[in-house]
Amino acid sequence: MRTWAVIRREYLERVRTKGFIVGTVLGPLLMAAFIVVPALVAGSRIGEQRTIGIVDASGVVLEPLRARLADSGREKGRDASRYTLMPVSLDGRTFDAGVAELKRMVQEESVHSGLVIAADFPTSRAVTFYVKSVAAMSVKDDLRPALNEVLRADRFKEKGIPEELREFLAAGTEWSTLNIGGEGQETRAGDESAFAVAIILIMMIYMMVLMYGAHTLQAVIEEKSSRVVEVLLSSMSPGSLMLGKVLGIGAAGLTQTAIWTAAFFVVSQQGVSIGSFKLDTSFLTPIIWISFLMYFLLGFFLYALLYAGVGAMCNTIQDSQQFNFPLMMGLVLPMLLLSLVVEAPGSPLSVGLSLFTLISPVLMFMRVCLQTPPAWQIGLSWLLLLLSIWLAARAAGKLFRLGVLMYGASPTWGTLVRALRQP
Amino acid sequence: MAQSVLSLPPPGAPILSVRGVSKSYGSVEAVRDVSLEIPRGSIYGFLGPNGAGKSTTIRITMGILLPDRGEVAFAGRPLDGAGRDRIGYLPEERGLYRKMKCAEQLAFFAELKGVPRREALARAAQWMDRMGLGDWKGRKIDELSKGMQQKVQFAATFLFEPDLVILDEPFSGLDPLNIELLREIILEQRARGRTIIFSTHMLAEAEKICDHVCLIDGGVKILDGTLDEVRNQFPQKSVRVAYEGGGEPPPDLPGVALRQFEEGSWRLLLEPGVDPQPLLDRLRAAGRISLFTANRPALGEIFLAAVHGGRATAGGDAR
Predict the structure, then answer these.
(1) Which residues of A touch B111 (CB under 8 A)?
(2) What residues are paired with B37 via a beta bridge?
(3) Does residue A142 surpass a pLDDT of 60?
(4) Which segment, A29-43, A363-377, B166-180, is predicted with the most confidence on average?
(5) Handedness of CA A408, A409, A410, A415 (dihedral sign)
(6) Where among A167, A198, A223 does a domain terminate?
(7) Quick one: A54 and A35 in the same domain?
(8) By residue range, what is the domain housing residue B250?
(9) pTM above 0.80, yes or no
(10) Of A226, A235, A405, which has the smallest distance from its Cβ to B113's Cβ?
(11) Residue B102 lies in a domain
(12) For A68-76, which contacts have Cβ atoms below 8 Å and span 24 or more sequence positions?
């Protein structure tokens, strides 16, 4: 079969290039770098010791806070707290002089930040926090709950709450978030991490469409400008030539993405976690997997065919740029609309947008990841995509037949439309 | 390799028929009502000046372009995929993948004609050797000189053992030694029963190897027949004359249809029936003659005369 020879050539010529090999290896490495480097950076920041200057006018906060911070450090798996409290003594000076001294220490960076506990802290609950940069605000997120507990313990003691009641009264709520699936089954929701995994998968669809779709454009133009197309067309029909090219390039893209996906899962199975964020792939249900594959392939074919048709009309990449704009819009638009869909995946607007074939591979897949839409909507989007692919194949076939031997003048929208109107 | 399902006509009978083919690009009529009969086993010269419509006719013949009117038949059947698999095509401009290795490229083109891959690779190696490119099998096309690329393309045309081969300007960009090699191969392939259509504007080359010729100009067929038939249509003589010190023949010579200065001498094509002897006396009057010959006209002169005649009858449509 001739088409098979074209598929094999396109595939091998692509897969054997240095660019492909480097890209395939670098892809996961970059991905890993994106995940691991922030984790390392975050980890090193977490491990860093911070000295906090403290003016405790109440006299009841310093020691309980120190104990509380040491406890929470142990809860997080560390030997001791990462915070060292450095009291500014008020002996022989006024409260204001003490605060001035603390401010000077923060200013000179001899302490990371400064905490001032008012004398009437148990009643006023007033705490002043001095920082040199906004970045120190993350420290507040650690100090605040600890101080809250210190305050609570102080008030329990004042009101004479018995020891055994204190833990009972201090209890917080226990949350677990569950997704309700299409058939009412429940799955654990990973919240942010599920969202992150969805974004990574969408990026893969996006890359496939963007990179490999554009590859078809280049391949067709190259074949045309090197006049190979004339030899090819003396052996096969324009339709089978186009089919062979699109399938061969698609297979190369699929190979790369398969390697990346595998790498991604190997990485995620290692239980990579960054602080509280954990790459969690457990939310990936079969419907998400099937949808991923479908939108990945359908999206690629739709764009590859459109690109092939445009390429057939052009003699150089420059020629194609004017036609690129609407194609690029089809790719940029879903990124702009993504947040809209994320906000309200089930809204009529989201449903409508995610059925629009040029952007449905990204938007409908996002919806599938967020909140599985009714099966008929997913099915309809597949059907519409298949229909669009059929139309695109017909149009591209026509452009291929008419355009592929057209040399000379660079084409315009007029020529494109005229070519499409021909019988 | 699987033998063709097509049954070829006996040698001498038309293997390819082009009937009343026309093709326009917008308002430009590239080919108008052209009909050709290519006898099996011949070397058929398809000749004409640049832009005459040769390549368009050939593309239609290969099914790359669809004609506005007319039809093409191969081995007595309308040309289809099976027919195209028996026709080799060397396009006017080289069409090779620049980044692909020579032998693989040859094998790929043969595969597209239905040769199994293994067989195609073996033949590719043989043909690379035959073309004197044995050391270049694993090299990319990009690394080859233009002449070498042309030879690779040439090999691709014959690799799958076609019944008919269409060569569009096969000698362009080649040195005399390589032209000789290709000419040898063309004659050898004809001896094996293949039919060859040789399209060129280099008429002297065509005259050396063609047994049939056809001339088109302005998209219209002007002459068609065996080399002898065409020559006999032009019984007039051609005179070549040169003067010492670079003189010129007198401007008002009677019976001269066409005069032209080329390669250091003047060529005068006489009108039919004109005797060159009295002309010699007139020419001697103009100066000391260093060269004088009187011959049957070369193909080039016949075509020049025919093109001028054709354009005159077509109402001076000088394209």
Answers:
(1) 2, 5
(2) B17
(3) yes
(4) B166-180
(5) negative
(6) A167
(7) no
(8) 235-296
(9) no
(10) A235
(11) yes
(12) A68/A146, A68/A149, A68/A150, A69/A142, A69/A143, A69/A146, A72/A142, A72/A145, A72/A146
In a domain, A254, yes or no: yes
Measured distance CA(A87)–CA(A115) in Å, rounded: 9
The whole-angstrom distance between B95's CA and the closest CA on chain A is 4
CATH code (residue A59): 3.40.190.10
Of B225, B247, B282, which closes a domain?
A: B225
Structural domain count of chain A:
2
Strands B69-74 and B14-25: antiparallel
Nearest CA in chain A to B97: A228
Based on the domain organization, do B97 and B216 belong to the same domain?
yes
**Does B278 lie in the same domain as B143?**
no
Whether residue B73 is predicted with pLDDT greater than 90 in this model: the reply is yes
Residues A152 and A196 in one domain: no
Residue to mutate among B24, B25, B57, B108, with most A CBs inside 10 A, is B108
Which chain B residues contact residue A243 at CB under 8 A? Answer: none
Tell me: do A136 and A232 sit in the same domain: no
- Assess whether A205 and A320 both reside in one domain: yes
H or E segment at B292?
A: strand B289-295
**Nearest chain A residue to B100, by CA:** A13
Residue type at B77 in one-letter notation: R
The alpha carbon of residue A309 is apart from the nearest alpha carbon of chain B, in Å, by 17
CB contact under 8 A, B84 and A235: yes
Q: Which of B87, B93, B109 lies at the smallest CB-CB distance from A227? A: B93
Chain B hits for A405, CB-CB cut-off 8 Å, are 59, 64-65
Coil, strand or helix at A96: helix
B130-157 per-position pLDDT tens digit: 999 989 988 999 999 989 999 999 999 9
Query: Which residues form the domain of A416?
Result: 2-39+189-421
Find the closest chain B residue to A244 by CA distance. B112
For A50-63, write each residue's pLDDT tens digit.
Answer: 888 999 888 888 88
